[in-house]
Amino acid sequence: MNDNIILKVTDLTKKFGNVVAVDHVSFELRQGELLGLIGPNGSGKTTLVNLITGYQKPDGGKVTYRGKDITGAAPYTIANLGIARTFQIVKPFYHLPAYKNLIVPLYSPRVKKLRGGKYGERDAKAIDLLEEVGFERDSVVPFKAAGALPHGYLKRMELARCMALEPDIIIFDELFSGMSMSEVASTLPIIEKLVEEGETMIVIEHRLKELFRIANRVIVLNFGRKIADGLPREVIQTEVVKKAYLGSEA
Amino acid sequence: MDSIIIYGLVYSMTLALTAIGLSLTFGISGVANFAIGGLYVLAGYLPWLFISNFGIPYPVAVVMSLLISAIIGALIYQLILQRVRGYLLAEVIGTFAIGIAILETIRASGLVGFGAKIPPFIQGTTMLLGVPIDFQRIFIVLTALILIGGLWLFTRRTKVGLAFRGIAQNERTALAFGIESDRIAMLSLVAGSVLIAIAAITILPLGLIHVDNGYEVLIIAIAVGIVGGLESLPGIILASFILGFSQTLAAMFIGTHWIMVVFLAAIVIVLALRPSGLLGRFKEIEERV
Amino acid sequence: MTTAYRKERIDRGIKARSDDIFALSSYREALYLLVPRVLPVGLLLIVPAILLGIGETYWVKIIIMCCVFGALALSWDFMHSAGLLSLGQALFFGIGAYIAGALNASFNLPPYLTIPIATIAGGFLSTLLMSSVLRLRGIYFGIISFALSLMLARVIEATHLLGGTEGISGLATFPNIWVEVYLVVIAVLFCLFFFRRLINSDYGLVFRGMMENDRAVMSGGINIYWFKIQALFIGSTVCAFMGAFMVHYIGTVGISVFAMDYSILPVACVILGGPGTFAGPLIGAFLLVPVSELMRAFSTWRIVFYCVVLAFFVIAVPEGIFHFIQRRYHQLERKVEVEARQ
Predict the structure, then answer these.
(1) How far is CA A62 from the centre of its chain?
(2) CB neighbours of residue A227 within 10 Å
(3) Which residue numbers in chain A have pLDDT < 50?
(4) Which end of chain B is more exposed for a tag (fewer CB within 10 A), N or C?
(5) Nearest CA-CA partner of B94 in B105, B103, B83, B104
(6) Amino acid B49: pLDDT
(7) In the prediction, which pLDDT does A250 show?
(8) What is the ipTM of this complex?
């Protein structure tokens, strides 16, 4: 892990009417880091990710990726630069088979530039990707319509969709939510493999036990403000964080 | 100068009156109803039918026409929209087709020929700021103001009105609150139909009833909605004024046939610069992530 | 214990036997696959020649109109598969028509020049006109395309440009009816095959994704607005071509090219035939257009008829008859005994 800062967020703010969802949040992300983003429900984690990845426009602040200012850029521009993200509520192409769901990211300008790609080759690559995330290869599962797949598979397909973009940074928005223990157990190794390969990631999670196993650093949000930033073990011991999650005694 | 203000005002309010029917159902409640063209002409034509063929007194004919419009609105909902709620394609095409079917049936049956006309409520003209103006036109302005003001209060203060807005924003949540979205949507459609019927009865006395008025109504309602923002009542008023005054000025200085050019230009400009409409907010492709 | 029956639907034997490479195993399997594909195309190519040979021009003219509306229906289906819901094919049709007519009248360009120019220029102009609507949700495209088609007609009427209400007449026509009919037949078949190929490719997959879920396509790094523009261009170009053809077919151009017929009948054909299938809309066109011709005596009742058909099918049979035909061809239904419980 080198000290190369690839993502820098400065003073990012978003208001919805009188509600401040994200309140002057700043942090840095280094190459190869796995940054955990935690906080109680409603603390602004997903909104922060939306602001970084272009799905919502910030009211103030700046986002810089490898020195380039990407504040308020369009979501597809940011995806093409190499920042991929999963969605909390998965919405795949229900009528298309699972592997066809991955063709769209494989068709993006980014992947075209990196890998080329002719009609027909993408199908094979899509099936390979699905195998990497745990779809049984020689079965009918990759060919089933996405609408027929159970939730755990859809979440893993979401992960495959991100990996298809060959991203620099992957942002996971509660990837493990809705997964059973066995599904979590089978998905964690995939993420650990990504860590080993040097992928940079931001992970929003509520399942702190799993998160702390893999995170290098953790940021805590509460009511839109960053209240802690440091090593997982240390952060979880601070008073502020404990109060935020557990409440204080009256 | 005074005549520009007066005629501009009258024309703007006429546009606004025409547009609120669509605004209520589609903009505020999210239920597509593009049969307004047909409903408009039908609502104007029925009183004429009742008066000239059955000799029914004018006020009674008007009330009957409003009732029938309401019933047709409810029928449209029950027969068509209820089966396809959520499929925008089917909603739009279905109501659109019915509206055109109504219009063309009226045209094809040759019922509305020359001389189909409903009398104004109040005959006569008066002078306002030195400009001659019919009482009927003043009536239009008053009706428009009352209806818009009433709608504003209704959608912000009454339970039913708030329900109208609720089902557009998030139907599941509305259901969870105990709002029967089907019933509310039907009410919204009925209300929209009645509004357009009122518009027809108030505006059509100014001239003869033509089937093509139906298409113009569609274009006007759409244009006003696009320019001002369909779900925003202040937007409707603003758009009506902009379009109304531009049209009045154009008619005075260039020629009366340029309505369409004005509307066309307005739509294209607004779409290019501010696609959600001047005061509107939610039309852009912005999936709630 | 009474025996109860349930309906079961399974693939026909011959369908299973003609899957994949086994289609080559015998004539029956090969024919099973080829006939539904080759027969209609073959008929479409041969029948006009036969009819013209025996001097029967009335039905050939109907075939021409079927092809014109068929192409409009195909373009609607294509745009719909990309998420663009258009209620104004007449807009694109009319733009193409007027460009061809104007070129012919002002510069005396012959049809084999005006038609290509009008097709491309019409596509560009239509795309330019409608491009700002692409940022809005799907339904506004339909509304505005409809409004614009009505408006352009009124604008031409009001400004007396391009011939105003009377239009431009005395334009060049085709040398003979053989050229006319085969031009449209080949054009429509080309559109059919082109669109089918396109929508099944990876490029087409992006379009199909846009129809279902804009956000997922965006998160895959695709600039959806650029792709929507491409879909709009492809769709409107086809309509512009037919508009240009129409102008030289009848020899005049007037505001009737913006008539609602050209917007609504294609939609009715698609809904009847089955959206998304491309072959379905074409079948729909060949069914509805002759019917509407026969109804010509009833003038405006025609439009009422289209609208009622449209409303009925959109609500009751939304997948259209093509799916129905396909299902009956590939599968059979039979009653099967339900094993009675003890």
Answers:
(1) 19
(2) 17
(3) 1-2, 250
(4) N
(5) B83
(6) 80
(7) 46
(8) 0.86
CB C101 within 8 A of CB B249: no
Whether residue A99 lies within 8 A of chain C, CB to CB, comes out as no
B92 inside 8 A of chain C by CB: yes
Q: Which residue on chain B is closest to C210 by alpha carbon?
A: B285
Helix spans in chain C (H): 13-17, 27-53, 57-81, 89-107, 111-130, 138-159, 177-200, 202-212, 214-219, 224-250, 261-273, 279-294, 301-316, 320-330
CA dihedral B259, B262, B263, B264 (to 10 degrees): 120
Closest CA to A71 of A80, A81, A61: A61
pLDDT value at position B284?
A: 58
Say how many CB pairs under 8 Å bridge A and B: 6
Q: Considering only CB atoms, which chain B residues are within 8 Å of A46?
A: 289
Query: Among all residues of chain B, which has the CA nearest to that of A74?
Result: B286
Max distance between CA atoms of chain B, in angstroms, equals 60
Distance of CA A111 to the CA centre of its chain: 19
Amino acid at the residue C168: I
The string of pLDDT tens digits covering residues C54-84 is: 888 888 888 999 999 999 999 999 999 998 8
Residue-level pLDDT at B112: 60
**Crossing angle for the helix pair C138-159 and B212-228, nearest 10 degrees?**
120
Question: Which of the residues C127, C155, C272, C309 would you substitute to probe the B interface, choosing the one with the greatest number of B C-beta atoms within 10 Å?
Answer: C155
Residue B288 confidence class, pLDDT cut points 50, 70, 90: very low
Q: Taking CB atoms and an 8 Å cutoff, what residues of chain C touch A84?
A: 219
- Is pLDDT above 90 for C134? no
Those residues with Cβ within 8 angstroms of residue C13's Cβ, 6 or more apart along the chain or in another chain: none
